[in-house]
Amino acid sequence: MRASGILRSWNEERGFGFVAPERGGPALFVHISAFPRDGSKPVVGETVSFELGRGPDGRMQAVKVARSMVGGDATPRRLASSAPRRSGSSLLGTVVLMLAVLVAGGWGYRHYKDSNRQQRADVPVAPREQSAAPIQSFRCDGRAHCSQMTSCAEATWFINNCPNTQMDGNGDGVPCEQQWCMAPGAR
């Protein structure tokens, strides 16, 4: 059976307070765990409904607390001016802080990019040499057999740089002699 009462005291640091039952009687202990976990904090003077239960010490206490003002501000109107509203100000502070970080980050990135561009402009660039053969880049990707290669250059690079290749059957250091790296005049 639910009863109603008013939260008469609350200790925020320790997470408990006392509810004065509407029908009279001694004040009942209430723990923060009895309140709904909706992010709002209990406010002294607010009307609550609760069930009676026994605490670990066997004494009666308020459990399964529900606030009377569902869907609205749980702060009673007569206490609205004296109750601090931290949730809105902390949200505003977070937004302002995020904007400041973004602006500072953008400025820092732009400054870094400009200084990097200036440094590159100060360094003389040597002309590139033109090579007769195009530069090919290979990487060890697990291929180990001649049938997986596309040229003698690729097979040679793999046998010299990658482990577990099986392309030099006679052990002379020349890979894929049957498919890619034929001796001159053998064809």
From TrEMBL:
UniProt keyword annotation of Electron transport present: no
Membrane-spanning segments: 91-109
Database matches in Pfam families: CSD, Excalibur
Keyword Mitochondrion: no
InterPro entries for the chain: CSD, CSP_DNA-bd, Excalibur_Ca-bd_domain, NA-bd_OB-fold
Alphabetical list of CDD domains matching this protein: CSP_CDS (cd04458)
UniProt keywords, alphabetically: Membrane, Transmembrane, Transmembrane helix
Chain ranges of the CSD domain: 2-67
Entry superkingdom: Bacteria
Name of the featured protein: Cold shock CspA family protein
UniProt source species: Roseateles asaccharophilus
